Amino acid sequence: MNTRKITCALAIMALLSVSLNVNAQRRNRIVSPEINENNTVTFRLYAPDVSSVRLYGSWMQGFGTQVDMIKPDTVWTYTTEVLAPELYNYAFYVDGAKVLDPSNVRMVRDGSRYESMLIVPGDKSDTYEVHDVPHGTLSKVWYPSPSLEKNRRMYVYTPPGYEDGTGKYPVFYLLHGAGGDEDAWTTLGRTPYILDNLIAAGKAKPMIVVMTNGNAWSAAAPGEEPVREDENPPDFSRMAGGGFEKSVVEDVIPFIEKHYRTLTDKDNRAIAGLSMGGMHTQTITNTNPGKFSYIGVMSMGLMNNPRWGDYNEEEHKKQIKVLEDSGVKLYFIGCGKDDFLFESVTNLRKFYDDLGFKYEYMETPGGHTWANWRIYLNELAPKLFK
Amino acid sequence: MNTRKITCALAIMALLSVSLNVNAQRRNRIVSPEINENNTVTFRLYAPDVSSVRLYGSWMQGFGTQVDMIKPDTVWTYTTEVLAPELYNYAFYVDGAKVLDPSNVRMVRDGSRYESMLIVPGDKSDTYEVHDVPHGTLSKVWYPSPSLEKNRRMYVYTPPGYEDGTGKYPVFYLLHGAGGDEDAWTTLGRTPYILDNLIAAGKAKPMIVVMTNGNAWSAAAPGEEPVREDENPPDFSRMAGGGFEKSVVEDVIPFIEKHYRTLTDKDNRAIAGLSMGGMHTQTITNTNPGKFSYIGVMSMGLMNNPRWGDYNEEEHKKQIKVLEDSGVKLYFIGCGKDDFLFESVTNLRKFYDDLGFKYEYMETPGGHTWANWRIYLNELAPKLFK
Question: Which residues pair with B79 in a beta bridge?
Answer without folding.
Answer: B42
